[in-house]
Write a structure and sequence with these properties.
Its main location: membrane. This protein is of the alpha/beta class. The protein has 15 helices and 9 strands. An 8-stranded parallel β-barrel has the order 1-2-4-5-6-7-8-9, surrounded by 4 helices. Helix 2 runs antiparallel to helix 3, helix 4 runs parallel beside helix 9 and helix 9 crosses helix 10. The protein starts with a helix and ends in a 10-residue tail after the last helix.
């Protein structure tokens, strides 16, 4: 009894810890069943058909009715369960012919980070080269007011700051001047650290190009997007305390977008919530985007036209509800073909992805029935 309680206690504790630490992973598993459940169901039925002869043979050979019931009873119970499963089964990829929506647009997550150093000119060029429809990035502002692209709060992961300025390598990226940032190499880490286990192969010329990448400015990024007619979406990071642009970060970013880049406003998916009313007043052409679900009425009141959601929040019902109000849905970060297929079947209008070069090749969703 003590052993049983110990095992039970350990199992419950382990499941609790996994549910806390692996919350997103469990959500992904649940999403995967929307794709695989029909095939698992068919496979289970096939297995039960194969087992029917051995079960029947053992039941017939049994001398006692009780033994026959013990053999046949569980088998029939499982068959009944499999018969009833379709009543509660849902998969958006089971649909009538002609009802599948258009393929979601592909937005390169920090460019094409499997093919080039993230948030660099080469990375965004690779996204464009492979047919991406939009570009996603992260924007912060240098100490002297130059908006530039950087995801991390420090420069240690994606530049050679530890080699050039080791004593200040842990300092917030926004506390450096643009002259200092320009000195850094933003590409050698990519070939050394290999951030993805399934990265695309690079030619010798591409490796040389990657090694010579530098930090990219927001202005140059926007000019590239404008020249290629690509949508842009970015997370805008507020500078830290005592930064000269701490309280004018949005104004400075707008100045670059509206006065220095030349990008057409409708290509900008504006995600930042702070000062949204002000942004709408000075840049009414931006596509106002929000990062969380909300009642349709509230979204329309704020002129929201797009939702930018984590793929774990994927819901075909919600996507359809918002679409009826002309609010489209973008899901991030979607890299695997099966997950992209589920987003496609669910009606997502676009996805942010690290794998534009892979997903571009899908002509229809996997597992479509």
């Amino acid at each position: 009894q003590i052993g049983t309680f110990l095992v039970l206690g350990f199992s419950v504790t382990a499941l609790f810890i996994l549910s806390v630490l692996w919350g997103d992973q469990w959500k992904t598993v649940r999403l995967s069943f929307q794709i695989t459940a029909p095939y698992l169901h068919i496979g289970a039925i096939t297995l039960m058909v194969l087992l029917s002869w051995p079960v029947a043979l053992h039941a017939i050979r049994a001398d006692k009715k009780v033994v026959q019931v013990i053999i046949v009873g569980p088998y029939l119970a499982i068959l009944l369960f499999l018969f009833l499963i379709p009543l509660g089964m849902y998969s958006p990829c089971i649909r009538e012919m002609g009802t599948l929506g258009p393929k979601p647009a592909l937005i390169g997550h920090r460019g094409a980070p499997m093919l080039a150093p993230e948030n660099t000119e080469m990375s965004f060029q690779k996204t464009i080269e492979h047919g991406g429809d939009g570009l996603e990035t992260d924007v912060t502002i240098s100490y002297d007011g130059v908006p530039f692209l950087m995801h991390d709060s420090t420069l240690r992961r994606t530049t050679n700051i530890k080699e050039v300025y080791p004593n200040v390598s842990a300092q917030n990226a926004a506390l450096f001047s643009w002259d200092t940032l320009q000195e850094l190499n933003a590409g050698t880490w990519f070939l050394k650290d290999k951030p993805f286990s399934y990265m695309g192969s690079l030619s010798r010329a591409e490796q040389e190009q990657a090694m010579n990448q530098s930090i990219y400015t927001l202005s140059a990024f926007l000019r590239l997007a404008e020249s290629q007619n690509k949508l842009v979406i970015f997370d805008l990071y507020r500078p830290p305390e005592k930064h000269p642009y701490r309280n004018s970060w949005i104004n400075r970013t707008l100045e670059v977008i509206l006065n220095e880049s030349g990008i057409r406003p409708h290509l900008v998916l504006w995600l930042e919530n702070d000062m949204r009313s002000f942004v709408q007043s000075v840049a009414p052409g931006f596509q106002q985007t929000v990062g969380s679900k909300a009642p349709v009425e509230d979204l329309l009141m704020d002129n929201i036209v797009k939702l930018n959601l984590a793929y774990t929040e994927m819901s075909s019902e919600d996507i359809r509800k918002y679409a009826e109000a002309n609010i489209t849905t973008n899901l991030y970060v979607v890299n695997e073909p099966w997950l992209f297929s589920l987003a496609w079947c669910s009606g997502a209008h676009s996805v942010t992805t690290d794998a534009v070069h892979t997903l571009k090749n899908l002509s229809q969703p996997l597992f479509l029935m």
